[in-house]
């Protein structure tokens, strides 16, 4: 058998393998580079960037839960200007695909961020995080409103010819409706899923363990939900999917690919083993060898029901 082909194509985005680092769990790659080989993986999704720096929420911002963690970081980030000045120089030295994740609280902010960052050659694609706070006119969360997700996709599409991946919220009744609107408005792919809303209370103080009261649940606890969301999209909409949620090892990654993910992202697992993404790449190769699979892309959506 000749060399296993781990390459993956997602619209116009070409990856050397399907393993990506999830936004917010490795900073701008720099936080993890001492512990793992960033050149070996398919790519890095950077921490959500907003137009201006954000301090995020006050602590406590993270708490461990059974088989998972809750976080309410509140999109703390350095902002576009500092990102370009201080973080891009590190990223552009890598032989890795850089996917820049963008968060915003208005439509105009999304547009402006993409417009500025589109000039950076080291950014290969954009991941648009629509599961973040509020719009200008009050209480709506973008990611829970199909019209907003459509509008955001349509608007950022006009600003760039680079691939656009829209990161979907799982906190909706029908995630496939959101994937459909992303496809309709010219998005190249969807990422599924972001964290699920959860909380935890201290039984003695009777106070929430997270200052923000609720946080986003991630880790192995959410894997079955994430798999079901990926499968729902795969069975309904013809759009590439990047699977995320509780991927801890290569077996989890394979499972996501079988239900329909073209690529996967590793998040919470990085906090336990910062080299896990490299190990997943090795595991995928070994699995393909043992199963006589020449091209890993043939696994995508190969489920039998
Ligand atoms: C500490 C922490 C910070 C995160 N920050 C972001 C972020 O800035 N932008 C984003 O799109 N997702 C963010 N996420 C969500 C992850 O990228 C991922 O979608 C989620 O954690 C599920 O994957 P996992 O179970 O492998 O962690 C964050 C997750 C964690 C745990």
How would you describe this structure to a colleague?
29% of the residues lie in helices and 22% in strands. α2 packs parallel to α3 and α3 (146-157) packs parallel to α4 (175-184). Mean pLDDT is 95; it is low at 133-139. It has helices at residues 79-91, 107-117, 146-157, 175-184, 223-236, 250-259, 269-272, 276-290; strands spanning 8-10, 13-15, 19-21, 43-45, 62-65, 68-71, 97-102, 123-129, 134-135, 138-141, 164-167, 189-192, 196-199, 214-218, 241-244, 261-266. The strands form four sheets. The protein has an eight-stranded parallel barrel with strand order 3-4-7-8-11-12-15-16, surrounded by six helices. Strands 5-6-14-13 form a four-stranded antiparallel sheet, with no helix packed on it. It has a two-stranded antiparallel ribbon with strand order 1-2. The chain is an alpha/beta fold and 305 residues long. It is built from eight helices and 16 strands. The protein has a single domain, classed as TIM Barrel, CATH 3.20.20.70. β5 (62-65) and β6 (68-71) form a beta hairpin. The structure holds flavin mononucleotide. Flavin mononucleotide binds at residues 22-25, 47-48, 69, 71, 73, 75, 101, 129, 167, 194-195, 218-219, 222, 244-247, 266-269.
């Amino acid at each position: 058998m000749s060399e296993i082909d781990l390459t993956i194509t997602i619209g116009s985005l070409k990856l050397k393998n399907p393993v990506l680092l999830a936004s917010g769990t490795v900073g701008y790659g720099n936080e993890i580079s001492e512990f793992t080989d960033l050149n070996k993986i398919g790519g890095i999704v950077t921490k959500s960037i907003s137009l201006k720096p954000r301090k995020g929420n006050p602590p406590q911002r993270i708490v461990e839960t059974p088989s998972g963690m809750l976080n309410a970081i509140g999109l703390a980030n350095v902002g576009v200007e500092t990102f370009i000045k201080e973080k891009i120089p590190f990223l552009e030295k890598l032989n890795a695909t850089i996917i820049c994740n963008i968060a915003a609280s208005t439509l105009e902010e999304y547009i402006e961020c993409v417009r500025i960052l589109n000039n950076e050659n080291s950014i290969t694609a954009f991941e648009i995080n629509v599961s973040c706070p509020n719009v200008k006119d009050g209480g709506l969360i973008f990611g829970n409103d199909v019209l907003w997700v459509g509008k955001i996709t349509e608007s950022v599409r006009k600003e760039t010819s680079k691939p656009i991946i829209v990161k979907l919220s799982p906190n909706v009744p029908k995630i496939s409706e959101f994937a459909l609107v992303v496809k309709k408005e010219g998005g190249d792919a969807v990422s599924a899923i972001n964290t699920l809303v959860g909380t935890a209370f201290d039984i003695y103080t009777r106070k929430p363990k997270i200052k923000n009261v609720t946080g986003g649940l991630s880790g192995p606890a959410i894997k079955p939900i994430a798999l079901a969301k990926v499968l729902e999209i795969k069975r309904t909409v013809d759009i590439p999917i990047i699977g995320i949620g509780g991927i801890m090892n290569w077996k989890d990654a394979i499972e996501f690919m079988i239900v329909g993910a073209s690529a996967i992202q590793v998040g919470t697992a990085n906090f336990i083993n910062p080299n896990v993404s490299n190990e997943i790449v090795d595991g995928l190769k070994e699995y393909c060898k043992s199963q006589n699979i020449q091209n890993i892309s043939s696994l995508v959506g190969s489920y039998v029901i």
